[in-house]
Amino acid sequence: MAQWQEVSEKSKLHPKPVGLVLQYGTAGFRTNADHLDHVMFRMGLLATLRSINTKAIIGVMVTASHNPEEDNGVKLIDPMGEMLTPAWEVYATQLANAEQDHLITVLKDLVQKESIDLTNQEAEVFVGRDTRSSSARLSDAVLDGVTALDGRSKDYGLVTTPQLHYMVCCCNTRGGYGKASVEGYYSKLSQAFIQLTKSAPNRTDDQKCLLVDGANGIGALKLREMEPYLQGALKVSLFCDGTGGKLNHQCGADFVKVQQNSPKGINRCCSFDGDADRIVYYYSDDHGRFHLLDGDKIATLISTFLKELLTKAGLDLKIAVVQTAYANGSSTRYLEDTMKVIVRCAKTGVKHLHHVAQEFDIGVYFEANGHGTVLFSKAAEEKIQQLCDDSEGERQGAATLLKNSVDLINQTVGDAISDMLLIEAILAIKGMTVQQWDAIYTDLPNRQLKVKVSDRRVIDTKDAERKTVSPAGLQEAIDRLVERHQDGRSFVRPSGTEDVVRVYSEAATQVTRLLNHLYLNQPLH
Ligand code: 16G
Ligand code: ZN
Asked: What EC number(s) does the entry state (predicted)?
């Protein structure tokens, strides 16, 4: 077929380095930008086939998120704005690793397995990219791949990852989710924010001002673009805005979370990551001590707010919080015991949390690292809308706040800009300072480290990564250590993005065994 001939010819312009093996990991492909040209071309091909297969628009985002500027990556977005379905991740890996003369065979195999009819089929792919210097040429390679299979493409250029998810969802729902343009995104979110904060008429200037660390990335650029739409309802002071520093270098959500340190000594502040799908908050207290409000604290604030509104509105909707094994034990305990909300644990990676959150009327999901959002079922959205129309007084007030929250939240994926606006609105409506928010519960002291091993795949886990099943004896050894510490908890899991094993542990205190031995006369072993 002429089509295969063209793909074969074009693929020679994007040659694969012989022997290079990459994997479609937790959030797509990620590695040094110099090794990705062939992967991008092939993901253009894959997205086109997926578009024919689903009869919908598919997104391709070029970014390596919080990783260093020298890296890059790519991930595909499925029709409703969610992550690519796992079966196709396998195809993505096969395609990326096919040697040059096998590429067409692998493609034909896929077409056959998925019964894709290539004759007279329309395909459309949306492409977006972050601010990395390599991103423009790499997204051109994606576009080449789409064209090679006669697909149509729309290049959104510089956008945040969540913005591209939003565009895909808007178009596939024929405008049902919003207008598929950056202006549409800014208007939808800003209007909802302005409406929400009308419920807090006495906001002080202090409450209206927020310091934002843009990780020297796309989030800074887009937030600046959005500011006029907010009409002064939020005054953002941006730093690490990409005008001087390097992407993600000593700034951004991952740096702040991992280093537990702020890029500057400051009051209420938040940090985005390199593609603006993560956010963490923090402040320094009077003694200059740094306080982090991570994804767990964010999930607590949001779920508390929503639960209170449900009660006021008299709406019987099932709300749950989805966390990962990294969630601080204090947050889980607070949510279950004090807030009385259902808490579920999912495997690391947004797609896993998203999936579990879909089981509830309202599913709030956040990873401790700040990636998360809220999902509302269709039925929940309809009930909220109905109550806005049919009720009055306090019930209607609560329903309207719920409705505006739905509009402000980007339900396709975690979105730093949308999350930030929601948090700012909640703090304003509840008249809460960042310190009061922080005091809702106190984190258990915890540590994380990564260990290089020769083969991380020897570690297999179960129970949402909280227990190991292999190698034999490892879980028993962890259990023996953990049971010696009050509120002790620890787990080991192979990373989905790096060739390392991650170790997490927490306990009620951080007093070392040596101190216990010296002062409390406890045995050292
Ligand atoms: C990816 C995930 C992030 C997860 C991290 C874990 C998405 C969009 N991103 O960055 O959510 O926390 O991987 O990395 O899903 P690890 O497996 O190396 O610990
Ligand atoms: Zn990210």
From this structure: 5.4.2.3
